[in-house]
UniProtKB/TrEMBL annotation, chains A, B:
GO terms for molecular function: catalytic activity; FAD binding. This is FAD-binding protein. Pfam families: FAD-oxidase_C, FAD_binding_4. SUPFAM superfamilies: FAD-binding/transporter-associated domain-like (SSF56176), FAD-linked oxidases, C-terminal domain (SSF55103). Gene3D superfamilies: 3.30.465.10, 3.30.70.2740. Keywords: FAD, Flavoprotein. Residues 49-227 form the FAD-binding PCMH-type domain.
Length: 493, 493
């Protein structure tokens, strides 16, 4: 939520030394250092913050990853690992005197084992490419972030990515069995494996979501699951957001775990409809998408039960997808909400808070009040089933004061999330964007535990420094601004 | 697999000082130090290894836990946390100059929230007591270790316990949302919370399964799930263990995830049948128990599909439970395999390796060969669905050489597990029993990472020292005995 600290600029001499060392490690075409070549790497999906890296390294093999890390360690050069650069919290934003290590060129599917239901893939394999490769066996890889056409598995591992189906099928951490990575010392380390439980500490779970701070991924084994024979989605309209939010709670309370349970407010529906022609009810105050998948009979039964609950909760209209094309159309609006925001507003700021489901209505009313306070519009899309909000604050950075107001608006939304017992990030990570909010979410002792674990993997603090985990000094400076504690806060006895 | 190193004995003066400090922290009846009082704490379920503790502390409140830890830290006294003492790897075995901290007296169910489907419980609440308390809401707590009548949630958290239904419903780590614990510094720390993904590193996952080395649990929030309306179990006989093992693979390959999938060999069936009257086919070479749960129609469909696969895989007889009483009877034999072993053999040694499912038949044949080699019988029971083996090596410690042969037999089984790509523990933990096998499973670098994480929580190494994670010196000494690498091993590039 705060601009990154100014980085120490590098000297031409330093850059020459680093380029020379990396050219010993990599073919010449894999080392970029001219500004026109490094410019594309100046930001990730969080475009508000930009920084040119000193050098970009694009290894093609694991041996080259090792050589790059050894060279950087010898020269004490910070490394920012980067997947496809679709991240939304600035986790891959460069450091001025550091390198960007992109795993994009390592993009081979190593093996698909239909019997074991696993795929072994290199870090630069795109999320959707895994499912494409598994499709011939009737299998797929479940996590489906909106960026799944572009984002890669190493980035998914770094951010513990979710998607619209994670309520039922889980996040990356629930769908990855093994990660092979290179440590800052240039050692190959394998975490996890085939067994349900691993001896020793669960370092795979720690690694997933560690935002490139613990090592560089070189290979991932993912779980594949059978593609459900049938999937159908209900689109339900509500004339009141609070009623829509309550309907979400009622579906879950009825003992149903939908394959997806998403909500959009009217601003969002009106934003995406001209762009996607998804068939959304643009007069409704809220739209719910509620999916069921499985065997045909199971889906029919569950669609019936969900429809009944939604009607009872006050739905003013209900449509059920009649075929796969219609299902994809119903989803298209939701999945394209971010690009649609980019069409109707010069800039937008995507938030990513999580709240207990039962506080959804209250938070929505709070955000509505903030729209007036900051005089900015906000389109609300949510993974409603798991309480993960994505308010999109619309603004124009060219109009004086709007960027600053958008930032304050965003900060107030996150403070509200923490206040109702939620968290500052659902699935987009902390990156550089929310590093100060970490001081709000956690106490000094817990941040110290994070730092201790980071140190266990990277004593020199060269891997993606100043991301995701704030320093204790930073938290001390954050000091008095600290909001009330949330779910994850230390509580003094 | 090796007897623990001899501990430094304590002096009477040291004991007096520790007792005095603990009496400042606790009511007098909560501090035990006379041998007749401390004797019950000399071992856990791994009865082969015993050690009297210097003092036993039984705090009744979280504030007392804090006071105990502060006192121990000030005096540099090692602490062995203990749940119900049902653990099977010696994780709660005392240290001669240390205290045992039992959480048994903190046994209150704090809250059951039927809407949120959670229960908040104190550490000493028994596993089954949670389900009992949730039953009025039609909910239950899924992990069901065989010791669930006695074992407590803090012990389940420490060992990441599973049970016969974990193939479908997961281990403790998949069913616990939040742990409140006291660190060695006497700080209260909350890990996890209500959200699907937590910002920062996933320290909840690290804590679960950390065998009392990172903190002392004072409260746990568990997930509750709806009790399936119907559950039925198939009992299938096979005239060949390899055929039975292949049938397990075929069920999974057919896309079915049974609620439970257990296998017993003839030695096990003959061992339990006189004791449990479970109706087992004692002429079969292998028996499979294959459960389905859910809605009545789903169960009927799945039982049909599973029966077909089992018949096709060569089952010689198939029975399906016709009512809940019969289902419980079919399970009774499997659930009482360990006590049954205690009835037919003076001593038994329960192993806990995990292997890839497809290597099951091969490992069974290997174990059969070892029975001849070591001239000891072995009863094999497995969580076959998730590849978790529990060979029970039967011996008589009073007959010269048998204990030693049993140990060697066990070590060879684990070496075979690692060799086929498996692990040295499935769900019983490492404790003191398998601490040397950790050196076989992991390389020095990975053990160093474990130690680094341990240090991040417990700089002084006072919490359950010399358990679960070997020291680097220990691994160096283990040295040349190291077997070929398994799934979790560092692989040099």
């Amino acid at each position: 939520m705060n601009a990154p600290s100014p980085d120490i600029p590098f000297t031409a001499e330093r850059q020459r030394a680093v380029v020379a060392a990396l050219r010993n490690a990599l073919p010449a075409h894999c080392v970029l250092y001219n500004e026109e070549d490094t410019r594309p790497y100046e930001c990730d999906g969080l475009t508000a913050y930009r920084q040119l890296p000193m050098v970009v390294a694009l290894p093609e093999t694991e041996a080259q990853v090792i050589a790059v890390l050894q060279a950087c360690r010898a020269l004490q050069v910070p490394i920012v690992p980067r997947g496809a650069g679709t991240g939304l919290s600035g986790g891959a934003m460069p450091i001025a005197d550091g390198i960007v290590l992109s795993t994009a060129k390592m993009n081979r599917i190593v093996a698909v084992d239909a019997n074991a239901r696993t795929a072994v893939v290199q870090p630069g394999v795109r999320n959707l490419a895994i499912s494409d490769a598994a499709a011939q066996h009737g299998l797929y890889y479940a996590p489906d972030p909106s960026s799944q056409i572009a984002c890669t598995i190493a980035g998914n591992v770094a951010e513990n990515s979710g998607g619209v189906h994670c309520l039922k099928y889980g996040l990356t951490v629930h769908n990855v069995m093994r990660v092979r990575m290179v440590s800052i010392d240039g050692e190959i380390v394998e975490l996890g494996g085939g067994a349900l439980d691993a001896p020793g500490l669960d370092l795979l779970a720690v690694f997933i979501g560690s935002e490139g701070m613990l090592g560089v991924v070189t290979e991932v084994t993912v779980k594949l699951i059978p593609k459900p024979p049938v999937a159908r989605v209900i689109m339900a309209s509500f004339d009141d957001v609070v009623r829509g939010a309550d309907a979400v709670a009622s579906v879950i309370a009825a003992g149903i775990i939908p394959a997806g349970l998403e909500m959009m407010d009217r601003t969002s529906a009106r934003m995406v409809e001209p762009f996607c022609k998804a068939g959304y009810d643009t007069d409704a105050e809220a739209i719910l998408l509620c999916e069921s998948d499985g065997l045909a009979e199971e889906v029919e039964e569950e669609i019936g039960r969900m429809s009944a609950v939604l009607k009872q909760s006050g739905a003013t209209a209900i449509a059920v997808s009649q075929n796969e094309a219609e299902r994809m159309r119903f989803w298209s609006g939701r999945k394209n909400a971010f690009p649609a925001a980019g069409r109707i507003s010069p800039d937008y700021y995507c938030m990513d808070g999580t709240i207990p489901r039962k506080r959804l209505a209250e938070v929505l009313l709070g955000i509505a009040a903030m729209e007036t306070k900051y005089d900015l519009r906000c389109a609300n899309v949510f993974h409603a089933g798991d309480g993960n909000l994505h308010p999109l604050i619309l603004f124009d950075a060219n109009l004086p004061g709007q960027f600053h107001r958008a930032e304050q608006f965003g900060e107030e939304i996150l403070a509200l999330c923490v206040e109702v017992g939620g968290t500052i990030t659902g699935e987009h990570g902390v990156g550089i964007e929310k590093i100060d909010s970490m001081c709000a979410q956690f106490t000094v002792q817990e941040v110290a535990a994070f730092i201790g674990v980071k140190r266990a993997f990277d004593t020199a603090f060269l891997l993606n420094p100043n991301k995701a985990i704030p320093t204790l000094d930073r938290c001390a400076a954050y000091g008095k601004r600290q909001t009330r504690g949330g779910l994850f806060k230390f509580v003094k006895g």
